[in-house]
Design goal:
Membrane topology: Multi-pass membrane protein
Protein name: Olfactory receptor 14J1
Radius of gyration: 22 Å
Order of helices and strands: HHHHHHHHH
Number of domains: 2
Transmembrane segments: 81-103, 124-147, 159-179
Distance between the termini: 46 Å
GO cellular component, one term: plasma membrane
Oligomer: single chain
Number of strands: 0
Shape: globular
Largest sheet: none
Number of helices: 9
Helix content: over 70%
Keywords: Cell membrane, G-protein coupled receptor, Membrane, Olfaction, Receptor, Sensory transduction, Transducer, Transmembrane, Transmembrane helix
């Protein structure tokens, strides 16, 4: 979804005259269907790989959801190779999405910086900065969770990092995207004025 949204921002800023032609209703429907189908395929692949594994010993997962890395720790068969293959494939697809997002924003920023009008630049930045904030938040928490060295024994930090990855980005998304809403801006302004008034007293 973040990749499709970055493409939408790219078309809106770099090809504004062709936006209605490129991002028509059928393109939006195909994008949504593509996201749903890719999510279903990903889920089916991971589920099939997990069911092909054999587990022995402790069946306790030290996490509040069944993460693939936790399954691999509990596996005592060669079936976990298929799970590693699925993870490698999905990691490669994620890398392609991140590369596409990076390419889109490179084009967007090069176009915005060439705009002669400061008002046009501000409008373009206000269009893409909420999405870019969500992308950075999601990728940074995801990388922090999956690229860190594994802990030998479970800890509270392990659970905290997982919460940062699974809970914080979806929780902050509505707030980040709502910052362009005038009513939300007015409420935030009142809150900050009240906080400043309380601090000055």
């Amino acid at each position: 979804m973040l990749t499709v949204m970055s493409y939408d921002r790219y078309v809106a800023i770099c090809l504004p005259l062709y936006y209605d032609i490129i991002m028509d209703v059928s393109k939006c429907v195909h994008s949504v269907l593509g996201m749903w189908i890719s999510g279903i395929i990903s889920g089916v692949m991971q589920t099939a790989a997990t069911f092909s594994m054999h587990f022995c010993g402790s069946h306790v997962i030290h996490q509040f959801f069944c993460d693939i890395s936790q399954h691999l720790k509990l596996s005592c068969s060669n079936g976990h190779i298929s799970n590693i293959g699925v993870s490698a494939f999905l990691s490669f697809m994620s890398f392609l999405c991140i590369a596409f997002i990076g390419l889109s924003y490179t084009q967007i920023f090069s176009t915005v910086l060439r705009m002669p009008s400061a008002e046009g630049r501000a409008k373009a930045f206000s269009t893409c900065l909420p999405h870019l904030a969500v992308v950075i938040l999601f990728i940074s928490t995801c990388a922090f969770e999956f690229l860190r060295p594994p802990f030998d024994s479970p800890s509270a930090l392990d659970i905290l990092l997982t919460i940062m990855y699974t809970v914080v980005p979806p929780t902050l998304n509505p707030m980040i995207y709502s910052l362009r809403n005038k009513a939300i801006k007015a409420v935030l302004r009142k809150v900050f004025q009240r906080i400043n008034a309380d601090l000055s007293c």
